[in-house]
Amino acid sequence: MSSGYQPTSALGRIVHEFEETAIAVILGLMTIITFINVVLRYGFNTGLIWGLEAVTFLFAWLVLFGMSYAVKVTAHLGVDAVINLFSSPVRRVIALVASVICIVYAMLLLKGAWDYWAPFAGLDATSGRWFPTGFENSRDQAWYSTVDIPMPEWLRFIEASMNQGEAYEKLPRFIPYVMLPIGMALLLFRFIQAAVRIFTGVSTSLIVSHEAEDDIEAVKHMNAGD
Amino acid sequence: MEVLILFLMIVGLMLLGLPIAVSLGFSSIVFLLVLSDSSLASIAQTFFQAMAGHYTLLAIPFFVLASSFMSTGGVAKRIIRFSIALVGHFPGGLAIAGVFACMMFAALSGSSPATVVAIGSIVIAGMRETGYTKEFAAGVIANAGTLGILIPPSIVMVVYASATDVSVGRMFLAGVIPGLLAGFMLMLTIYIMARVKNLPRGEWRGWAEVFASGREAGWGLMLIVIILGGIYGGIFTPTEAAAVAAVYAFFIACFVYRDMGPLHVKGEGRNLSLLRKPAALVSVFFHRDVRDTLFEAGKLTVTLMFIIANALILKHVLTDEQIPQQISAAMLSAGFGPIMFLIIVNVILLIGGQFMEPSGLLIIVAPLVFPIAMELGIDPIHLGIIMVVNMEIGMITPPVGLNLFVTSGVANMPMMKVVKAALPFTAVLFVFLIMVTYIPIISTWLPTLMMGPEVLVR
Amino acid sequence: ACDDGEILIKFSHVTNTDKHPKGIAATLLAERVNAEMNGKACMEVFPNSTLYNDDQVLEAMLQGDVQMAAPSLSKFEQFTKQFRIFDLPFMFKNINAVDEFQSSETGQAMKASMERRGLSGLQFWHNGMKQMSANKPLNLPSDADGLKFRVQASDVIKAQMEAIGVSPQPMAFSEVYGALQTGVVDGQENTWSNIYGQKFFEVQDGITETNHGVLDYMVVTSTDWWNSLPDDVRTQLATILEEVTTTRNAAVGEVDAEARQAILDAGSNIIELDAATRQIWVDAMMPVWAEFTGDVGQENIDAAQAINAKH
Ligand code: NA
Ligand code: NA
C-alpha cells in the first residue's frame, strides 16, 4: 500500500506483510475491545474491567512497533523546505549527518528502554549516563503487576522463575513493557538501514513533508493537466 | 537562557531534515542528561506513558480510522452530490457546495488535510469542468478544508483537552458554532464574489434530487448524530465515541455503500447484496480492503503519535526544569493583560505552525500558556478554540502550511499559486480569528447551554 | 529554584496546591523544608499530575527520578496486600479510628512493610471518609442495584460494589465529571472534599452519608534514597514531615465539614442514615471481608475492630 517502498527479497516481502498486518491487527483489536465495552456497559450493565488498561497497552504497542516501520517506508514527518534549497551533493551530506543523529537518538532511547524494562523482568539495568558501560545490580521488580489485566492460567509457569514461586494475581508489567526495548531496537535497526540507503544513494531523505503525501499521490491524476 | 538553546536546537535539527519527532526527542534528551539528574529510563517511561497514560489521546487512532473508512468507503462523493443538489444553483454554486461539503466531511473527520484530500480531489476537478479557474477552486478548498479541525470531532481539540485536562466533550461543543460561522463566512464571501464576477452557477435539479442524494449521504452523515448524540446522551465517553464512530464507518463502508470489502464489485458492475453473500459477515474481517484501511489508519496514527510522544518528552523536561512557572512569572511581571497575552499566543502559534504538525505544537505550547491564561481569567475552552483557529490559519499561510501542501498536491499546481489563490479567503479567516479571540461567547455559549457553566477543578 | 550543593527533593502529586488536603499539606511541607533546611535540602513540588500520575510515580521513585509522593492507599495493594484493609467497607468507624489504627503498632509496621520492594512509608495523610453519590437518591443499598459506578482500580472496591448490585466501571479520572453528567456512569464514591472539589455534587441527585470507607494517602520515599541521606538531613526532614502531618491531619475534619456544608449550601441533597438504615448498608457490604481476610490478616482486622470499639 505505501508508496515508494518496495521490498525486494522474499524475506523482505514476508517481513513487510507481517509489519503491515500487525499494525492493522493491533488497531483493530483496540477498536473492537473499546466498542464491546460500550455495548456491554450500555446494553448489559457490565463490562470487561481489564478492557481499558489492555487498550492503552495496545495503543503503546501500536506506536512502539509501528515507528520503525515508518522509518523503513520514510513516512515520518519533517520539514524539507530548507534542505531543498541545497544542491544534491550538499543535501546528501546533510542527510547523512541527520541519519547519524537519528542513530544516536535511537541508541539513547534503546538504553533508556532497557534500563526501564530490565528491573521489571528481574534483569539488570545498564550503568553509565549516556551510553551503557556495563550492568549494575538492579532491584528485582518482577513482582510488579498491571492493575486490571488478569493473569492467564497458561502463563503461570513463569511464576517459578520470575516471581520466586509466588502467584501473580494480575499480568506482570514486564509483559506489556517488553515492547519498549523491542520497539527501540527495531527503530535503531531501521535508522541504520536508512543511513546506509542514503550513503549508497538509494534514497535521499529521512522524511516526508506532510501526513497526506501518499493519499495525494493517489488522487493527483484527477487534476492533471490544465 | 538554556531554554532558548533548547528551542533553537529543535528548530535547527528540523531544518536539517530530521523527522520532527526526533528533533524534539533528541534535543530534550540531551537537555535532560546535561542539566538534570533524571535518567534515560525516565525518558523511556514518558515515551510509553504517552500512549498508555493518556487515555484521551486514544481518540486519535479511532477518529483517524473512522475517517479512513469514510474516505475509502465512498462517503465523500455522496456528500458532494448532496451539497450540489442543495446549494449548487446559487451564484458560485459549486464553490459554495464545495465549502458545504467540506463542513460536512469535517463533521466526520478529525483532521484538516484529510478533509482537503477527500473533498478537494473531487470538487476541484468538478469546478474546473463547470468553468471555474483552477486557482479559485484550490483557494476555496484549501481554506474550507481547515474546518476539519474546528468542526468536531477534531484531533487537535483532543490533544488540547489532553494537555490541559479540560473536557473533550466541552471542546467539541465549543467548536460547533465557530465552525458553522466560519463556513458561513466563507460561503458568503464566495456568494458576493460570484455576484460581482458573475461566476458560473449550477441548475436546480429539484427536491427529488435533494432527497435522493440526501438519503444516500445520510448514512454517512448519521455519524454526526451518533457521535454527538452518544456523547451528550450518556451512552459513551468522547474517547469511546471515536471507537464507535470507527465501527459504524466500517459497517457503512462495507455493508451499506459497499465501495469496499467483500460485497464490492470493481468496475461498472453492481455491488453484491448481503443476502446473496451472507458469508461476507465473517469474511469482511479478513478482507484485504479492511486490512489495508486499518493499516493506513494505523500508520498515520503512528506518525502522529511518534511526534506527540516526543513532544511529551519535551514537556516532561520543561516541567522537570519548572520552565512554565518561569515563563509565566516573567510574562505576568511584565504586566501583560489578556489582550496582549492573546496576541502573543497568536503570534507564537502562527510562527510555530510554520514548522510543526498542529497536535505536536499544541502539546508543547498549551502547558506553557495555559497557567498564564488561567491567571488572567481567560476561559480555558475559549483559549482552546483560539488555538485551534490559529492552527487553521497556520495551515494556509506561507511559507509553510499543511493545507497548502496538500492542496497543491491535490490540485496539481505550484504552492505559491495556491497561496495567492487562497489569500482572499485567508483574509476572511483572519477576520474570523479576531472575532473568535475577542468575542468569547461564540465559543462558550453552546457548551455552557448544554453542559452548564465551566468547572475549573484545579 | 534550588542552589548548588542542596539535596534536591522532588515531590510529585496529582491535586491542586491550595484547596485539596493533600495539595495543602505538600505545599506546607515544601515551604517549611525550604525555609528551615536552606543550604542543606530543597523541595520542588510538582502538582496536578504535571510530572507523574499516581500509577507512574511509584515506578519513577524506584528508578530514582522522583523522591517523594503521596499516592492513595489503594495504590500500595500491589506492594503489600495488607493495605487492602483500608479499602474494606465499614472497617473503620470514623477518621479518628483510622488515625488511631495508623498510629498503632500495626499501622506503623505497615509503613515499613514495603521496604523489601524498595519503598519506605513515612507518614499517613488523611483525606476523609467516603460517601456514595448517584443520579438518584440512595436510601438503601437496594436503591443502587443495577447502577453503574466509577471506581478506583482496586479489587476490594470492585467486590464491595458488586455486593450491592452495582456494576463497577474503570474510568480515567478526567472523564468522570462528564460521564456522571451525561449518565455514562450513574454514580461514584468519594470523600466530601473530593465531591466538592471536583464538583461532582452538581451532576448527582443525592449523596448518601455512608462513611463506608476511607480515602487516605501515604507519603512514601525510595528506601535506597532515604538511607543514602546524611543522618542529620534525614532526621530533620522526618521531623518536619511529622509536624506537618500532625497539623494537617488535625485540620482535615474541618476541611471535610466545610466541603460538606458548601455542598449543602449549593442546594444538594445529602441523605443522612439513622443507625438502623446504616446497619442495612453494613450487612450488605460486610460479606466482602471474608473474601480478603487472607490478604489482610485476621489479626489486623481484630486490631481495627478493637480500636473502633473505643470511638
Ligand atoms: Na472535524
Ligand atoms: Na503557515
Q: What value does the Rg of chain B take, in angstroms? A: 22 Å
Give the biggest beta sheet of chain C.
Answer: 9 strands, mixed
Alpha-carbon distance between the two ends of chain B: 30 Å
Helix-residue proportion of chain C: 40-55%
Structural class assignment of chain C:
alpha/beta
Secondary structure tally, helices of chain B? 21
Overall geometry of chain B comes to globular
Topology order of chain B in helix (H) and strand (E) letters = HHHHHHHHHHHHHHHHHHHHH
- Radius of gyration of chain C equals 19 Å
Q: How would you classify the helix and strand content of chain B by structural class?
A: mainly alpha
Instruction: Give the SSE string of chain C.
Output: EHEHEHHEEHEHEHEHHEHHH
Average pLDDT of chain C works out at 91
Helix content of chain B: over 70%
Q: Uncertain regions of chain B: pLDDT < 50 for 5+ in a row?
A: none
- Hetero groups bound? sodium ion
Strand content of chain B: under 5%
What does this protein look like?
The complex is a heterotrimer of chains A (226), B (458) and C (311). Chain A has helices spanning 10-44, 51-72, 88-117, 158-162, 174-177, 179-199, 213-219, and strands at 126-127, 134-135, 145-150, 170-172. The longest helix of chain A is centred in the N-terminal third of the chain and has 35 residues, at 10-44. In chain A, helix 2 packs parallel to helix 6. In chain A, strand 1 (126-127) and strand 2 form a beta hairpin. Chain A has a two-stranded antiparallel ribbon. In chain A, strands 3-4 form a two-stranded antiparallel ribbon. Chain A is mainly alpha-helical. With 458 residues, chain B is an all-alpha fold. Chain B has one domain (39-451). Chain B is 75% helix and 0% strand. By secondary structure, chain C is of the alpha/beta class. Chain C is 45% helix and 20% strand. Chain C is built from 12 helices and 9 strands. The radius of gyration of chain C is 19 Å and the shape is globular. Residues 353-354, 394, 397, 400-401 of chain B line the site of one sodium ion (NA).
